[in-house]
Amino acid sequence: MKKTLNINIGNSIIHIEEDAYETLTTYLNEVKAHFSSSADDFEIVTDIENRIAEMFTEILSRDQRQVVELADVQVIIAQMGSVKDFEQIDEDATGEIPVQDGIKKLYRDTDHAIIAGVCAGLAHYIHIDERWIRVIMLISIFLGGSGILAYIVMWIIVPRAVSRSEKMYMRGEALNLQGFFRNFEEELAANQLMKRSGGFIREVVSALDRFIGVLGKTIVKVVAIIIIIMGSCFLLSLFITLAVLLGIWDANPYEFFPLNIVSAAYLTQIIFAFFITLAIPLIALVLFSIRVAFNSKALNKTVSYGLLIVWLAGVMASIFYVAKVTTEFKEQAEFTQVRPLAPYPVYDVRVDRTMFLNHEDSLRYHITAERYAGKVIISDDHGPFTTPSRVGLQIEKSDNGKVSLTQNYSAHGKTFAMALKNAQNIEYGFSQQDSVLNFSPKLHLNKFSNWRDQRVVLVLRVPVGTKLNIKKDVSYSLDRYGSWSCDSYDDDSNDFRVWEMTDEGLKCKE
Amino acid sequence: MIAENTQTQMRKGILEYCVLLIISKGEIYASDIIAELRQAKLLVVEGTLYPLLTRLKNNGLLSYNWVESTSGPPRKYYLLTPEGKEILNKLDMTWMELSYAIETSKQMKS
């Protein structure tokens, strides 16, 4: 089965096979180009076309056929004569038609190759002698070997000029009969040359050439498959995260850090917006990789535009909500509470890791007085989802000889009133048992309060001469200002250092 | 190369003369001209004939009539104009002279 075309030549409709058509078109273009210099070109070409049409009709009626074949066209061209024949007779012909520069394309010229024809192909492309490219390549090998890498990359990427038309594109020759003819002769010459110049290396190189071609494709496919697998895993985990966040499972994610920034009113929306923003590019990447790996069809245009629109909407929503959340940090408010402490000459400063639980927490964790009588729950979470808890302790000299603890609570909010309310929602655990001062390492937020950068700054004021036994974990948990640089503690967590308040401030005793 | 060039020049002139001779016998179609040229062993391809005919026509030596054809488009049948006949007579004379010149040259040589 062959494809046929209908052409109108000399006012006759002729059915013609595709290859025959191509040859005929090339021939007629040649003829037109040849006569274009003479004043009567139109008339001459029309005469020739009419005659060709007549010959087609004769051949078809003689052989009782419907379609013109390539052989018929060849017969007709032989009878009409090629342009070369015209030139011998035609007195107007002053010389050869100049080689028309057609479109140039980069191919590997394996006919003139040393290894894979990259240099020769490049030489054709930028129209200089291939020797110079090879010299440059050789030099570049000694300059860090970049030439080798470039060569291999081009070997994989740049296609080999296989067909005659590809070879002509490679040389930037116009696709016409003359070109074809010249090309054919050169090809023959090159083939003879190739036969002379040792077959073995050529064979090895051509095998290597095929191997690299296959290798390149394989690498691309393997990478695509890896992307498919990774992308699918990410997608799956995204969906699981979405399910968890939307509370399909009985988990309470709202106490985890990034989520408790967002107020509950639009938490669902923001989760969806982020989900869409992340998931759609992933889906697109996976689909594209599937296409590369399995040569499947491209995604339907409507679907891809739909995905794009949904993604843009997701991005817009994300930006909108992030901006909205940001405004909730606009104002800052703080208040201070001074608490007098019972005076002792020596204080033990400790960190109290007892978890602070309010009524709702107790219910949630099923903590009852009976079960937990005399026990404490130790809070020691340092995960990535821990709410930043900013508690800082400073120790200063007391001016009035009394011992006091100043607690400074601060928070952010959309308005000053909101910020103040957020600051009031801070619960901070501090207790004094005789000379032992227990500081909680964390601040606690009351139920339903979002994280609004709540901070607690504690200032302990002691009179000059007061001694403080500060344990190691205190400085780890509460020294936000790096002021207690006495010396390094031992690894024992019960290790402590003795400090004394002097006129110049706190001094390390040992 | 020189021989080739001379051959071409000779062929060109004679081809033109022969074409005029063939047409002078009566209205004739281009492919029939070719057929007669082939018979006369003056081998040319058809494509060469059309420019020649067009040029002769433009110089006023030929004219043509359109004749409907059963196979394909209407055909151009060429015939000599009075001017063409005149030129042909001149060419006849020239040919006789040339022929005489060649014959004589050859005889002198031998």
Structural write-up:
The complex is a heterodimer of chains A (510) and B (110). With 510 residues, chain A is α/β, with parallel strands linked by helices. Chain A folds into four domains: 4-89, no CATH class; 110-197, no CATH class; 220-327; 331-508, no CATH class. In chain A, 48% of the residues lie in helices and 18% in strands. Chain A has 15 helices and 13 strands. In chain A, the strands form three sheets. In chain A, strands 8-9-5-11-12-13 form a six-stranded mixed β-sheet. In chain A, helix 5 (118-126) packs across helix 6 (130-142) and helix 10 (199-245) packs antiparallel against helix 11. Chain A is elongated, with a radius of gyration of 43 Å. Chain A starts with a strand and ends with a strand. By secondary structure, chain B is α+β, with helices and mostly antiparallel strands. Chain B has one domain (2-109): Winged helix-like DNA-binding domain superfamily/Winged helix DNA-binding domain (Arc Repressor Mutant, subunit A), CATH 1.10.10. Chain B has helices at residues 2-24, 30-39, 46-58, 82-109; strands at 28-29, 62-67, 75-80. A three-stranded antiparallel β-sheet of chain B has the order 1-3-2. In chain B, strand 2 and strand 3 form a beta hairpin. Chain B is globular and about 55 Å long. Chain B starts with a helix and ends with a helix. The model of chain B has no long low-confidence stretch (mean pLDDT 84).
